[in-house]
Design a protein that fits this description.
With about 220 residues, the protein is mainly α. It contains 11 helices and no strands.
């Protein structure tokens, strides 16, 4: 038990939690959830919120535990994936700042309105709550953790964020009335700034790693 506790990295936990909260942005989904479920009974809304939270937890946990193995299976270079993921996340952050709906999110929302049933997994969970940026970030955070530490450090964060999503949807009506559109918009912009900072760090670290992996050995003989 003591060995497992030592695998928990509190600073890493805080950093990953901040990034994952900014990416999932529990407040962002509240207006969409209310719009898609406006004719649902309270029991149907509760069931939908339960399924969304569970899907977020399962999909994020799979990405944390198996994401790196999936990259290795397809032969994807981690540094390149880190740069690409950073660019995707930066795009999401800048879009949140400009309040322009992400095209994929807008399409998913429209499809969800048309679907009117079975919306909990698609589109409310994927891609509106956890999308490509979320999966890329989770995989990259898991990559820098040693074996076992991603379970002790990242899974508790994923559980916490999944609970936030669940609470946000479960109490969507009172939260929406209490905060209003303006406050939700301000919080979304703050999360967007955090997200953009994380994205820039991902690109910088990925670029440095790509330089070490692919260019440093080529330069050394020439300067030696």
């Amino acid at each position: 038990m003591t060995d497992l506790i030592h695998l928990f990295d509190f600073q890493f936990f805080l950093k990953f939690t901040a990034a994952f909260v900014a990416l999932t942005n529990p407040l962002y989904g509240i207006p969409i959830f209310l719009g898609m479920t406006h004719d649902y009974t309270p029991q149907q809304r509760r069931k939908t919120a339960n399924v969304v939270a569970l899907t977020v937890f399962v999909s994020a946990s799979v990405a944390a535990l198996l994401g790196e193995e999936i990259l290795a299976f397809f032969g994807v270079d981690v540094a390149a994936f880190q740069i690409a993921g950073g660019i995707i996340v930066l795009g999401i952050g800048l879009t949140m700042l400009s309040e322009t709906p992400v095209a994929a999110d807008a399409k998913a929302t429209a499809d969800g309105h048309n679907k009117r049933s079975g919306i909990a997994v698609v589109p409310l969970s994927i891609p509106l709550t956890v999308g490509p940026g979320s999966f890329a970030t989770i995989i990259l955070f898991a990559h820098v953790q040693s074996d076992g530490s991603e379970i002790m450090t990242m899974i508790p964060a994923i559980i916490g964020v999944s609970l936030l999503v669940w609470i946000g949807l479960l109490f969507a009506d009172p939260i929406s009335r209490l905060l209003g559109v303006t406050v939700i918009s301000v919080i979304t912009r703050i999360m967007a700034i955090v997200l953009s900072a994380v994205a820039v760090e991902m690109v910088i670290k990925g670029s440095l790693q790509a330089y070490k992996d692919h260019f440093l050995d080529l330069i050394k003989p020439a300067t030696g």
